[in-house]
Amino acid sequence: MSSVVVSAPERRFRRPHISQVVAFLLLLFLMVLWAIPLLWAVDTSFKPEGETTVIPVSWIPTHFTGAAYENVLNAGNLLRWYFNSFLTSILITVLAVFFASLAAYALSRIPFRGSKFVFWVILAGLMVPGQILIVPLFSLMQLFGLVNTYAGVIVVQIASPIAVFIFKQFFDSLPHELEEAAVIDGAGRWRLYWQVWLPLSRSAVAAVAIFTFVSAWNNFLWPYIVVTGVDMMTVPVGLATVQTAYGIHYAQVMASAVLGALPALIVFLFFQRQIVQGIAGTGIKG
Amino acid sequence: MANMLISEQVQAAEKPGKRSARWKNDVIGYAFVAPFLIAYALFVFLPIILGFGMSFFNWSLAGTGKDQFLGLQNYQEALTDPSFWGSLGNTVLFTVISTPLLMVFGLVLALLANMKIPGRWLFRTVVFAPYILPVSAVVLVWNWLYQPGFGLINGMLTAIGLKEVGWLSDPNVAMLSTVIVTIWWTVGFNFVLYLAGLQQIPQEVYESASIDGANSWNKLLHITLPLLKNTTLLVMILQVISSLQVFAQIFLLTGGGPNYVTRPLMQYVYETGFSSFRIGLASAMSYLFFILIMLISGIQFFLFYRKKGGEA
Fold it and tell me: Is the dihedral of CA A91, A225, B179, B302 positive or negative?
């Protein structure tokens, strides 16, 4: 907003300085560089198989075709992987948001004994690099009989300390009066949480939910380890097997990559602001 | 007035037996944190303890050797294993190359995106978008770009008369190839942190510098970069920790090859546990790695807060 105010008078005197021209050209160059890999992937995916490995390389397909997509969707397991990814990511998101916001509400608003200690224990979890735990986690899954199940994919991903932290910060910033008014109404804590705090926290809920969903959707290592059957794979795990399956059929490989990347890209285009703010929040916190 | 009334009423409402009200808070408080804490205890704390325990036994993936206590033998084996040191060396090499590049690219991209240039929203979207992609899609695309002959990069190199590069097959280049993929894929994170840092710098600072006759280069060097110091430290800390944990993009792109020159420590831990089935040994390696990461992040945090404190 303030940049609009500032830029207005500047605009009147604008004479493109040489450094601005250089910067603009650099920006254009880097943008093209960053866009090329995805554009090339899309380009390849619309070529007939025989044309992908022709030398010299060419951007323009002589025969534009959607055959690779047809093949991938008909013969491959992609639709099944979509289903698995959607199911697990949505359940992880709902449970993670619910558990974290409930805990954060108690830590922020209910003066119970030991709440400070509980909060520190949860914060300590931020220091643990998750990858270190995969070996014992897999043994636990064997013990619980959760190997190659949806539950096995889900349960490990629902306790998110960072989500508790974000919710608590948000709840701490809301005025106390709201709660006092509701206490007078005789509302119990559960109703306060459910009917007052959650509706008030829509922006925080949205930010945490989008972030959790994207991380769960993109998570590779854990599903790769806990899932053993092709029909239980999530999109990232399934995509990792595509290269071996299609080999040199690069149009189909790229069609799979494009289709696998699409849901995350769509979420990103719709919720770019929340995702970017979520990351920037980490910075401001520090 | 109204506030006083409300708090009086609240007190009145809570009056009947302060003791019971306190107990009630304890019960409800713990009931509310319980779902999170149970999941947290089961899937964060329990594995930490279990992994530590397993690292002292000859534990296999099938469950045999659970009762064969080895003492510190697993740790000894890991620390005398050349492959452990080799892959740790690869991880360190990856971190040393990728961290400065990811910081510089993040900063330069953010500086460009922060200028008042038409179309900068498109630039932001294009630069950040790869960060949101699943790693396996990223690797499929880059594996295709890196192919010899008909791969786009080599195709363009030969078109302008240069020699082909064995991006994934040349042991001297393969690590660089994984770094390039990582920069393209993850720089969006540092980019956003730097952009947020830049937008916190008040415009007035630049305006008064302009009045004093400072040019853009001077402003960058003497205003922007010093004011971004905290952001830079934060980006560095987070980047080092995340680079040390590198696994999936290398595992999928090169499989650790050629001849293990790109295999990161995490991949060796994974292979020890899930290909050689020695999860006791893999746990010991995880713990050694854990200690290393904690040590490095501890040092960084110490430096971070000392610098921050010195400034105030």
Answer: positive
